[in-house]
Write a structure and sequence with these properties.
Structural class: alpha/beta
Number of helices: 8
CATH topology of the largest domain: Alpha/beta knot
Oligomer: single chain
Strand order of the largest sheet: 2-1-6-5-8
Largest sheet: 5 strands, parallel
Strand content: 15-25%
CATH architecture of the largest domain: 3-Layer(aba) Sandwich
Order of helices and strands: EHEEEHEHEEEHHEEHHH
Distance between the termini: 45 Å
CATH class of the largest domain: Alpha Beta
Bound molecules: 6-{[3-(dimethylamino)benzyl]amino}pyridine-3-carboxamide
Helix content: 25-40%
Length: 254
């Protein structure tokens, strides 16, 4: 059982996303316990203030330290990962999601305003960003992280094969998927997928995944371990691409 505590000034934002689909099912199965805490409940002044003017002047407001410290101290256990969401954090990725999924307790602090009092760094164990853009708060990043982590908990996903495929394939993009009908207004399913020849299908999927990765995310091919077969597929793909250039074809999918 993994426990996730989220500290926010907008608890209502979490109602929808955490009560549908995989997260809802994981909660029902007792795989995860998610608590949303209103930061204002940890204030002590009569105005329940969570922000204040910046020392030294300048525009905007800064999140106050005391409510955050009171909240984290109340929630913290021996083995808590205390995560601050901020645009200047370490970039979140699948590897970090897998790491978080192994923890017994996550405390996620959703920042707002122009920033947060720098001294918050003394109480956190990690600063994480979901990407290079600024949002109006850390709430949506918190939902992104919870979703990515919860679906990795054993039992959270109906068919664990889909996770295995994913992590097995991790490092290159996914192969293209098709379902019924075989022919939609002339858009046909590739013949090989109807052949019933599992080895042929495996090879086709691997090659198409590599083709996609070469065209869209060539950076991934540098980082991942490629088999002898992969390397010869990539040679074939590059040959096919040169052939297309010669024939003057112009198709964004290839
Ligand atoms: C500025 C995370 C803005 C500073 C949070 C927080 C984007 C992301 C915010 C902070 C966010 C992201 C220092 C806590 C809130 N925007 N890319 N907005 N601090 O993950």
């Amino acid at each position: 059982m993994i426990k996730i505590d989220i500290i926010t000034i907008f608890p209502e934002m979490f109602k929808g996303p955490f009560n549908v689909s995989i997260i809802k099912r994981a909660k029902e199965k007792g795989l995860v316990d998610i608590y949303i805490h209103n930061l204002r409940d940890y204030t002590t002044d009569k105005h329940r203030s969570v922000d204040d003017y910046p020392y030294g002047g300048g525009p905007g407001m800064v999140m106050k330290l005391e409510p955050i410290f009171r909240a984290v101290r109340a929630l913290k256990k021996e083995d808590s990962e205390v995560i601050l969401l901020s645009p200047s954090g370490d970039l979140f990725n699948q590897k970090l999601a897998e790491e978080f999924a192994q923890k017994s307790h996550l405390i996620i602090i959703c920042g707002r305003y122009e920033g947060i009092d720098e001294r918050v760094r003394t109480i956190i164990t990690r600063e994480v960003s979901i990407g290079d853009y600024v949002l109006s708060g850390g709430e949506i990043p918190a939902m992104v992280i919870v979703d990515a982590v919860v679906r990795l908990i054993p039992g959270a996903i109906g068919d664990p094969n889909s996770l295995r495929e994913e992590s097995f394939q991790w490092g290159i993009l996914e192969y293209p998927h098709y379902t019924h009908p075989r022919d939609f207004e002339g858009l046909k399913v590739p013949e090989v997928l109807l052949s019933g020849d599992h080895e042929k299908i495996r090879k086709w999927r691997r090659k198409e995944a590599l083709r996609r990765t070469l065209l869209r995310r060539p950076d991934l091919l540098q980082k991942t371990k490629l088999s002898e077969e992969d390397i010869s597929f990539l040679e074939e793909i590059k040959r096919e691409l040169r052939e297309e250039v010669k024939n003057g074809s112009c198709n964004s999918e290839s």
